[in-house]
Structures are given as structure tokens and as C-alpha cells.
């Protein structure tokens, strides 16, 4: 554990070190370049705002009305026949849609079932092994103004499904109940 | 497709609230989430300015081309549309590396730069083949160290907070491989449609 946390805390400072040393080596005006590149960041954050706001409000309406919970309880029996533990069903549906909601659910599952329980381990694995597809697609396509997204969403959601199935299978094998 | 999903989520939510008396909650969620989105975007400014600034220096110093050269055989196969040594490759690789090491906040700015470069290559507002591949790999998540999850497990006194690293890596490998395969299948389907 200490090894992993050491790597994590050294990573960013090391990247900065390498970048700045190689820039100085090549006699580049590093500070001016940094400022020039950084300026883009402000513009980018503001152009992302409407994309994020629109998506987050729509998801919030779905969740706030209770429709999402109803949908999940409707889907639960079906997923259970495929061997998905009922406690994990909401998380597997939320994971591609909302990152913060998924993190909240994972935390709650870990606190109620314990981090070393089957559910706790499965929630941990699922949280780490897939990402928030809807957020990534919204942000990346939004930032560069892509209007027609082709198959991106379909591919992303299908990969999520396989990731969730893989998590369940692997956790079951590795930490057999 | 995103337009339909976006509208459908809100429409279904509002209609559901009509019949279940949860209009109050909908109103609350609506403005709370709008607030959250603004806070999130503003919170992104610090991260975006820092990483885009640093990456500009790295790019000028030739570090991105170096990274691209290092992993050339692997990435040229994944992104056959992008010319070798193109800056897009460097940004794609920096995004993958940041993801691998769990630097989520560094991954986003580099990913956006990669998308910008790919857009310059395709010159349309339609998603190009390499963009879809890039996003497919990103949505399947590339994690070596799931730092957030480990932190949560530690907070709840896990006996072995890191024991899920192995299962997470295997699950990630499978979902990323699946993403690449599914992406290819969809690509071949598009090509076949165009030929007809």
C-alpha cells in the first residue's frame, strides 16, 4: 500500500520536473509557454459549462422524480436472473450515467456491507473498472463542437455492459463467496 | 442520439412526477444540479489551466512526439487514420498515461486536446473513426491504481484496501478489449453500409 501511495504522490511532481528540465535544456521560454497554453483552459471551462449543465439537469430530473428508482426496481428481477446481486443493480445502471451518483452509491454500499464483503469488493471493482460514459462523451464532443457522434455512445455503453459483467464474474471467481 | 436521450430523460422524469406527486423534488433537483454544474465547470478551470499550460511546455519541448514515437507500433494500429508523429498521437498517449496512473483531472484536458487535433485532421463536425475509438477506450476506463476507491475502502477500515486492485485491472482489461473490438465491429458495419 505504501508503495502505491508513494507512486501516486510522486507522479505529478515528477512529470512537472521532467517537463521543466527538458524545456530549460532546449532553452525554451517555459513560463511564457505555460501562460499561453493555460489561457486556453479558461475558454475551455466556460465552453464546457452549457454541455455539463444541460446533461446534469436532465439526469437530475430523472433521478429527482423517482423515475430512475422505479426503472431500476423494474429491471432488478431481470438482472437477478442473470446472477447480478440485487444490491449492485442500481450501481451498475448509474455508473455510465452519473459519476458523482455512482461514487455516492459505491461509498454507501461499502459502508453498509463492509469493504471486505462480497458486495463491497464488487462495488469497488465496478467503480474502478468502468468510467462515466455519458460524461466523457458530453465533455469531449462538446469541447470541440462535434455534432454528429456516430456510434460513440453505442460503443461506450456496450463496453460498460461487458465491464460490469466482467467485474461480477471476476470478483466471484477471485473472492468466491 | 444524444439529443433523444437528453430529452427523454427530462420528459420521462417530468411525466413520472405528474403521476407520483414528486414535482417538488423535481424542482429542487433541477436547480441544485444546475448549481452543481456551474461549480463543476468553474472547478475545472484550475485543472484545465494548469495541465494545458504544462502540456504546452511539454509539446514545445518535444516530449509529446517522444512519447508518440515510443508507443508507435501499438497506437498506429489502434488509430490507423492518424499520421505517424502527428501531435494528436502525443495527446492521445498522454491522456492514456494520465488515466493509467489515476490522474483523472490531467486526463480530461489532454483528452480534449487530442480531440481538437483529431478534428483538425477530419475537418468536419462529424465524429471521425479515430475519435470514436479514442472515446470507446476512454469510457471503458484505463486504471492501474483506482485511488479513489482505495481511499474509500481505507476510510471504512478495510483489512486489505488494495486487494481490489487486481480484480479492477482484469475487469478494466476486459472492458477495454471489448471496447476496441466493439468499435472495430461498428466501423466495419459503417464501411459496409457506405459501399452499398
From TrEMBL, chain A:
GO terms for cellular component: plasma membrane. InterPro entries: Gate_dom, SpmB. The keyword Calcium does not apply. Residues 46-146 form the Nucleoside transporter/FeoB GTPase Gate domain. The chain crosses the membrane at residues 7-25, 45-62, 157-176. It comes from the Bacteria. Keywords: Membrane, Transmembrane, Transmembrane helix. This is Spore maturation protein B. It comes from Sediminibacillus halophilus.
TrEMBL record, chain B:
The chain crosses the membrane at residues 6-23, 35-54, 88-112, 132-152, 164-187. Keywords: Membrane, Transmembrane, Transmembrane helix. Pfam families: Gate. InterPro entries: Gate_dom. Residues 43-151 form the Nucleoside transporter/FeoB GTPase Gate domain. It comes from the Bacteria. This is Spore maturation protein A. It comes from Sediminibacillus halophilus.
Amino acid at each position: 500500500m505504501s508503495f502505491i501511495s508513494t507512486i501516486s504522490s510522486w507522479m505529478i511532481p515528477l512529470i512537472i520536473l521532467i517537463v521543466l528540465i527538458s524545456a530549460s535544456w532546449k532553452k525554451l521560454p517555459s513560463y511564457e509557454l505555460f501562460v499561453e497554453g493555460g489561457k486556453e483552459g479558461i475558454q475551455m471551462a466556460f465552453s464546457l459549462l452549457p454541455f455539463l449543465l444541460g446533461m446534469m439537469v436532465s439526469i437530475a430530473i430523472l433521478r429527482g422524480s423517482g423515475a430512475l428508482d422505479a426503472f431500476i426496481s423494474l429491471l432488478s428481477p431481470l438482472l437477478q436472473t442473470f446472477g447480478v446481486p440485487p444490491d449492485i443493480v442500481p450501481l451498475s445502471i448509474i455508473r455510465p450515467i452519473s459519476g458523482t451518483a455512482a461514487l455516492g452509491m459505491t461509498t454507501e454500499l461499502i459502508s453498509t456491507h463492509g469493504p471486505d464483503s462480497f458486495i463491497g469488493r464488487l462495488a469497488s471493482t465496478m467503480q474502478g473498472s468502468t468510467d462515466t460514459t455519458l460524461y466523457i462523451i458530453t465533455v469531449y464532443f462538446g469541447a470541440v463542437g462535434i455534432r454528429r457522434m456516430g456510434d460513440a455512445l453505442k460503443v461506450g455503453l456496450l463496453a460498460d455492459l461487458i465491464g460490469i459483467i466482467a467485474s461480477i464474474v471476476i470478483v466471484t471467481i477471485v473472492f468466491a463467496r | 442520439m444524444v439529443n433523444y436521450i437528453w430529452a427523454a430523460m427530462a420528459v420521462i422524469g417530468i411525466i413520472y412526477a405528474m403521476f407520483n406527486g414528486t414535482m417538488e423534488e423535481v424542482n429542487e433537483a433541477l436547480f441544485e444540479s444546475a448549481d452543481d454544474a456551474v461549480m463543476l465547470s468553474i472547478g475545472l478551470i484550475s485543472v484545465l489551466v494548469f495541465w494545458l499550460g504544462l502540456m504546452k511546455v511539454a509539446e514545445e519541448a518535444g516530449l509529446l512526439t517522444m512519447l508518440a514515437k515510443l508507443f508507435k507500433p501499438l497506437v498506429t494500429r489502434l488509430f490507423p487514420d492518424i499520421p505517424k508523429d502527428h501531435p494528436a498521437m502525443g495527446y492521445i498517449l498522454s491522456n492514456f498515461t494520465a488515466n493509467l496512473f489515476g490522474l483523472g483531472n490531467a486526463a480530461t484536458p489532454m483528452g480534449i486536446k487530442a480531440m481538437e487535433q483529431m478534428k483538425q485532421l477530419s475537418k468536419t463536425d462529424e465524429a471521425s473513426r479515430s475519435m470514436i475509438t479514442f472515446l470507446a477506450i476512454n469510457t471503458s476506463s484505463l486504471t492501474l491504481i483506482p485511488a479513489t476507491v482505495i481511499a474509500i475502502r481505507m476510510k471504512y477500515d478495510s483489512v486489505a484496501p488494495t486487494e481490489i486492485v487486481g480484480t479492477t485491472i482484469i475487469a478494466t482489461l476486459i472492458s477495454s478489449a471489448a471496447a476496441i473490438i466493439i468499435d472495430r465491429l461498428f466501423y466495419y458495419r459503417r464501411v459496409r453500409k457506405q459501399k452499398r
